[in-house]
Amino acid sequence: MNILVVEDEPKAGNYLLNGLQELGYSVSLARDGVDGLHQALETAFDVIVLDVMMPKMDGWEVLRRLRKEADTPVLFLTARDDIADRIKGLELGADDYLIKPFSFAELVARLRTLTRRGPSREEEQLQIADLQIDVLKRRVTRAGTRITLTNKEFALLHLFATHQDQVLSRSLIASRVWDMNFDSDTNVVDVAVRRLRLKIDDPFQLKLIHSVRGIGYRFDTQP
Amino acid sequence: MNTRRHYSLTLRLALIFALLAFALLATLGVALYRELERELIMRDDAALIYRIDQLRNLLNDSNTLDLIKTKPELFQNMLGNRESVLSIAAPGQKPLLTVNPGNIDLPSIPPVPKNHELTLADVHHFPSINGVPFATVAASIDSGDLGSLQVTTGRLMTERTSVLASYRLSVYILASIAALILALVGYLLVHRGLLPLRRLARHAQGIGVGNLAERLDSHGAPKELLPMIDSFNTMLERLAKGFVQLGQVSTDMAHELRTPINNLLGETQVALQQHRSIESYQQLLASNVEELERLARMLDNMLFLARTDPASALRQRQELSAWDEVERIAEYFEGLAGDADISIHAEGEGVIWAEPMLLRRALANLCANAIKYGAPRTELEIRAVPSADGIHLRVSNQGETIAAEHLPRLFERFYRVDESRERSAQSNGLGLSIVATIMQLHNGRYRVSSEAGVTCFELFFPRRED
């Protein structure tokens, strides 16, 4: 995946560049709006991460000019948490936004969603190592043993299983499983993951759910 | 700001005074003038009739007739001025006597028959001969030898006209002077009367952030200004309170920020003291992330509370199934409650007219509290009860009773019942104030009761208005 990051803040630009490169993406960094627009028009990127508050040319202007020529998906970053700002961005043709401060895992998840091409076909049967999930019948077995899950436990497992190898942040999990789109002060997600582990991981040798400290959880056959 | 021009109350009142005075005096003057005019006309008419009556008597005497023929100047003198007209003539003949020094054109009028008494109604008025009213009367007279004679007399009302004209002028001049005086007096009085207002304005100007405790002085102010002063002072009271609260919130927030920042700073500095293993650096960074997430959450909450635009916050209000929402919250907290050995009982029906994310946030905050303070092996109850004008959502738990003195303050920012016990990473003292803000945004109500070990938070969402 080919990503352009337009960010004037030096530290933020650097960590976005490094972080995304480490995940195996090819990343270009522009330090201001003029350069950003120039690069965006020169090269075909899969997705653009665009900071709004920049000197010389702000993100809105970059977006406005870019949209005249290309429809590359754009995710904008804003430090201002007001609704008018977000609406403005989306009206100008942005595809998604994140409010600073945001978690890096969240950014990666959003970028993946933006670049996913075509509707992903819902798998009816999922098989991860010796774990089998029958999505339609909502039946889970591991190593031939039937495991009974509550509705939300199943939803959580399904989310993990369809996002293998990806680090999922707590707020992403809360929003996908319970439709709670805000940072709750509680550790509901941790508790739910622990309970799920109790059923699908603890009795078995191979662990599937891994904690990634400070970020969230990863579902993977590799430790 | 108002773009219309501001008028001066003083000037306006003075002008109104002047206009009223002029109108009043002018009306009075006109009424008196009419009365005077009528009186004068009547007197003039009576004089004419009196003259004819006298001639009727005189002309019965043949000596008088001779006298008329021989010495007509006598009669001219008798009339005394140039405005009177007298003519005596037999019908169809040259007049015996014509006294008309002013050469006035006599209009011909029918004479009053001989035996009729003359009345005021017999006087004919002509509106104007050369601009001056003219009154005339004619009568037939029996003069013995000469038979029937016709006497016509009249008078041009020059004198009356000039009297009335000067009267009119006086009225206008007096009314104008009175209006002028009243305008001046009115201006001065109003100007003086508004003095307390200017004093208040000066006083109000002096009140700023530094002396919000000061109040406007109602001493010596007119009664009409008292309500204004009162409401102004009440407003100051509210402002002062809000200001103190705001200051308190800033202070509290700064204190809240201290803990995570202190952890970040301390842990990082200690870690940098010497070389360490990769694992301990990872541990440090992960710990930093936790503190930073805590800071981000607090920031998010503070910004949420500071947002004051209800219109945009409520743009996405929907009619939500109370059952779905209550069930969702119950499922969300199922694990957490299970850990605390608390069971959740959720039930409800009806619809909630709310912005879904805000509603869920409010309910989640209440439930998180309820689980935190609930005693083990008890039940957390989430209940939705529809009523005629909306729906009540109740979240109640069993645990320690909250002392009554704390209840009204629970929804304040950073308020904690037990200062030392509750300052933890999980709680930042904003949860309930966010609930309060969400309810205010929805024009709803919130309250809390705590009795006999049961603490119940109740939210009321009004139903959708058409």
TrEMBL record, chain A:
PANTHER family listed in its UniProt record: REGULATOR OF RPOS (PTHR48111), TRANSCRIPTIONAL REGULATORY PROTEIN CUSR-RELATED (PTHR48111:SF41)
Limits of the OmpR/PhoB-type domain: 123-221
CDD domains for this protein: REC_OmpR_CusR-like (cd19935), trans_reg_C (cd00383)
Keywords from the named record: DNA-binding, Phosphoprotein, Transcription, Transcription regulation, Two-component regulatory system
Portion annotated as DNA-binding: 123-221
Residue positions where 4-aspartylphosphate is found in the record: D51
Superkingdom of this protein's organism: Bacteria
Entry-linked PROSITE patterns: OMPR_PHOB, RESPONSE_REGULATORY
GO biological process, one term: regulation of DNA-templated transcription
GO molecular function, one term: phosphorelay response regulator activity
Protein name stated in the entry: DNA-binding response regulator
GO cellular component term of the entry, any: protein-DNA complex
InterPro entries referenced in this protein's UniProt entry, alphabetically: CheY-like_superfamily (IPR011006), CusR-like (IPR006291), OmpR/PhoB-type_DNA-bd (IPR001867), Sig_transdc_resp-reg_receiver (IPR001789), WalR-like (IPR039420), WH-like_DNA-bd_sf (IPR036388)
Gene3D superfamilies associated with the record: 3.40.50.2300, 6.10.250.690, Winged helix-like DNA-binding domain superfamily/Winged helix DNA-binding domain (1.10.10.10)
Pfam families: Response_reg, Trans_reg_C
Domain Response regulatory: 2-115
Automatic annotation (TrEMBL), chain B:
Transmembrane segments: 169-190
PROSITE patterns in alphabetical order: HAMP, HIS_KIN
Catalytic reaction annotation: ATP + protein L-histidine = ADP + protein N-phospho-L-histidine
EC number from the UniProt entry: 2.7.13.3
Top-rank taxon, per record: Bacteria
GO molecular function ontology, one term from the record: ATP binding
Name of the top EC class for this enzyme: transferase
UniProt keyword list: ATP-binding, Cell inner membrane, Cell membrane, Kinase, Membrane, Nucleotide-binding, Phosphoprotein, Transferase, Transmembrane, Transmembrane helix, Two-component regulatory system
GO cellular component: a single term: plasma membrane
Annotated HAMP domain residues: 191-244
Domain Histidine kinase as annotated: residue spans: 252-465
Sections of the chain in a coiled coil: none
Cell location: Cell inner membrane
PANTHER family, alphabetized: SENSOR HISTIDINE KINASE HPRS, SENSOR HISTIDINE KINASE YKOH
Annotated function: Member of a two-component regulatory system.
This protein's name: Sensor protein
